Amino acid sequence: MVNELWSPPGANLSRAGFLRGSGLLLAAAAGGGLLGACAEPGSGQGQAAAGGDGEGTDFTFLSYLTLDTLSMSPEMLGLAGGYFADHGLNTEVQVVRGSPQALQTLLSGVAPLTRVGAIDLMTARTEQDQPLVNVGTIVRRPSIRIIYSQDRPLAAPEDFVGKTIGVPSEGGTSEKTLMLMLQNSGIDPEQVTRQVVAQTPASFEMVRRGQLDGYMGSIDIALMVESTQEGGAILNPADIAAVKADTQIYVTTEEAIEQHGDDLRSYLAAIREAVTSIVEDSDRSRTIETLRGEYSFATLDDDEVAPRALDEGVALWTDDGNADELLVTDTDLWVEAVAELEEAGFISGAEDPESWVDNSLLEQ
């Protein structure tokens, strides 16, 4: 059972100048209930950022995270660096509350593309038989980190037994990743208590007080804790056990591919160019300067954290240096990831998972 847990006041990261000069896109109402697949909720409620000069084709991207985390740096640079505009897209980012709402809004036809965890698509395809398609893998490795105190290390599988770990949402990608990590390392996940906490640096205070033994957060938040909190430490779940299903993908629908194929192709090409620009910016200084011209939030504004977070991002996007196949989904690994979820009991009845992947929109 996952329990709700209080998080300290002031938990949200500071943010100013949220894409200066941009327009506001109101969140469209999506009919029906939320999908059962659950991931970390974003804090935005219909906030949005616009890119381009308004002369291109209007294109809406659904984001389950607000643009105040370097986890979204490909999208932010696509806007701030003009990559979407160069591909003829007047792009707007519509922020929704979490992956379930992102997928529900996508299915309603309000927008043609979103980015979520692979686990979300796999769950929706098997549990709701939704016509969702993976059209590109942006994050190829686990992008979540476990934040803990050096006084109570979490460095080996057995260190987790009997402990309490904070997760951003019940049943979300992070919790499932934690459970798969434990299961793959021979630990019964039920030996570890999970409690819902805010995914912010401020939640480290609960670790300090002993209310938690650790909690899961994004890379830039984890780096901020390590940099600013005495005794703060970080664990990459992959150092305990690999979780094949813990990737992030761009998702559309079969109908959207038919109706918006050219726009989807342009969007993905712009993302690929933005990522390539970050990869080629060896000290990340040019990237940081461009992003700071349009955004201001805690991890981006920190001269130590920002380049380290982007370094980690490059490793995630390129599978630690292989930039030749940016965004291309390896269908063999995809099938193995689906099998991993089935064996863990998270999904069942997966049929022809190769058909859930379409790399054709990445072709030049």
Automatic annotation (TrEMBL):
Pfam families: NMT1. Residues 77-282 form the SsuA/THI5-like domain. InterPro entries: NMT1/THI5, SsuA/THI5, TAT_signal. This is ABC transporter substrate-binding protein. It comes from Georgenia alba.
